[in-house]
């Protein structure tokens, strides 16, 4: 290339910023140009360069692509996104599987009307009116229909509900979601847990599988299914608000409620509390409210207790529970300090019944029970429910602290005997 042309080429290259391939293309075009003089080729070079610049100005911008994360960059953002759980948009599929196994219960009871004013007993009044008010005087019984819900747990017609739904009922009617109506009979009822099992003459019924309620976590989403106020099957949603609750609103003997804010109202009793997999986590039982209507504090009997009680009622019609034969109270920080305990945990024994399982095991007043079969004891309610959930005659291990030293005791459980009410 002639010197003057080489100078022109270098100047244009520095201005236009040719790439190596583009520079080679321009050089070829110039070498093929019909112009023979160096000055002419230099002009031709400028002309070609201007054309290339004009064409470049008309080129669209390349699409922007996001930069791929470098392997050396921390993966904190990626892992954070993976931990974000997007809210579920619909539970329709869960409800479609659950709803057919939740029924409406109508229990007919005979209740005695209150006695009327004492002047009905006046002989002059009776002589004047005859027997017109005889029924009112005696407080004649009348029929009352109680409303509740139930859950089918066996395909051959076994249904679990609350004891208080069918207590005292003379006739029980079951209505399934497909509007079939059945007469039901009571298989067994258990006031201490507020559970009952009834049966209808049907088979191949849809059932609900029971979840392991011990694995339910505070914050888990749950759905309540039942027939509140008789308006028809209704589904409400909420979360597990707390576990291991005791309200004392019913019998109160063995309460281990799951608390939920899923709306529960009259008629929901005995209905299902299910998780998002469609498994039964509890049987709705109570609400806590100053007005009698839902304020977001509802309670369900956990599925593990439901399973234990239901299986016994189906097999034998009654429930057997283990018993230690002790009176207990919580270990407060003050009690822990007086007993020189490192922390306030477990329960303290304040009485031992003679000839009981506890007495035979050597348990003493003042002992602190910190574990039952290796599981830590959180409070008196949890210990009572664990003992009750174990069959009489079972050998159990108790971890106790006596005189500041930890000991292991073995006890053979007796049988719980409900207190007789006058």
Produce the secondary structure layout.
Elements: H1 3-16, H2 20-31, H3 38-58, H4 76-83, H5 92-98, E1 102-112, H6 123-129, H7 134-138, E2 141-152, E3 158-161, H8 163-166, E4 171-175, E5 181-190, E6 195-200, E7 221-226, E8 234-245, E9 257-260, E10 272-275, E11 280-287, E12 298-302, H9 303-316, E13 322-323, E14 326-330, H10 333-338, E15 347-352, H11 357-361, E16 368-372, E17 375-376, H12 380-388, E18 395-402, E19 405-412, E20 414-415
Antiparallel strand pairs: 1-2, 1-4, 2-3, 3-6, 4-5, 5-6, 7-8, 7-10, 8-9, 9-12, 10-11, 11-12, 13-20, 14-15, 15-16, 16-17, 16-18, 18-19
Helix pairs in contact: 1-3, 2-3
- Outline: flat
End-to-end separation? 123 Å
Q: What is the CATH superfamily of the largest domain?
A: Trypsin-like serine proteases
Q: Can you tell me the CATH class of the largest domain? A: Mainly Beta
- Into which percent range does the helicity of residues fall? 25-40%
In spatial order, strands of the major sheet run 1-2-3-6-5-4
In what range is the share of β-strand residues?
A: 25-35%
Name the structural class. alpha+beta
Domains, number? 4
């Amino acid at each position: 290339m002639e010197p003057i042309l080489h100078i022109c080429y270098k100047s244009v290259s520095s201005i236009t910023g040719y790439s190596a391939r583009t520079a080679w293309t321009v050089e070829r075009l110039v070498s093929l140009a019909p112009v023979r003089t160096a000055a002419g080729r230099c002009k031709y070079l400028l002309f070609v360069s201007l054309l290339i610049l004009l064409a470049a100005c008309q080129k669209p911008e390349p699409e922007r692509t996001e930069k791929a994360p470098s392997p050396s960059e921390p993966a904190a953002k990626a892992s954070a996104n993976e931990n974000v759980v997007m809210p579920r948009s619909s539970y329709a599929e869960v409800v479609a599987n659950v709803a057919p196994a939740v029924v409406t219960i109508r229990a007919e009871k005979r209740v005695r009307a209150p006695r009327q004013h004492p002047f009905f007993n006046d002989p002059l009044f009776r002589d004047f009116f005859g027997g017109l008010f005889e029924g009112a005087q005696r407080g004649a019984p009348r029929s009352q229909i109680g409303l509740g819900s139930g859950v089918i747990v066996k395909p051959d017609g076994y249904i679990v509900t609350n004891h208080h739904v069918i207590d005292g009922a003379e006739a029980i009617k079951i209505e399934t979601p497909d509007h079939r109506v059945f007469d039901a009979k009571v298989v067994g009822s258990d006031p201490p847990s507020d559970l009952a099992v009834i049966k209808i003459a049907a088979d191949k019924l849809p059932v609900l599988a029971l979840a392991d309620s011990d694995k339910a976590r505070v914050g888990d989403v749950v759905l309540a299914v039942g027939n509140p106020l008789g308006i028809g099957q209704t589904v409400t949603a909420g979360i597990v608000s707390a576990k291991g609750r005791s309200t004392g609103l019913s019998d109160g003997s063995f309460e281990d409620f799951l608390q939920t804010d899923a709306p529960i109202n009259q008629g929901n009793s005995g209905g299902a509390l299910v998780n998002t997999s469609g498994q039964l986590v509890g049987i709705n039982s109570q609400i806590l409210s100053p007005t009698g209507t839902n304020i977001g504090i509802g309670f369900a009997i956990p599925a593990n207790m439901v399973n234990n009680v239901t299986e016994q009622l189906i097999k034998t019609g009654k429930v057997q529970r283990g018993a230690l034969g002790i009176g207990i109270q919580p270990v407060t920080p003050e009690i822990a300090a007086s007993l020189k305990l490192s922390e306030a945990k477990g329960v303290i024994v304040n009485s031992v019944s003679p000839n009981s399982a506890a007495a035979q095991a050597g348990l003493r007043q003042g002992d602190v029970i910190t574990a039952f079969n290796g599981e830590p004891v959180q409070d008196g309610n949890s210990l009572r429910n664990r003992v009750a959930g174990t069959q009489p005659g079972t050998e159990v291990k108790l971890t106790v602290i006596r005189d500041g030293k930890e000991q292991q005791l073995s006890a053979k459980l007796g049988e719980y005997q409900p207190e007789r009410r006058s």
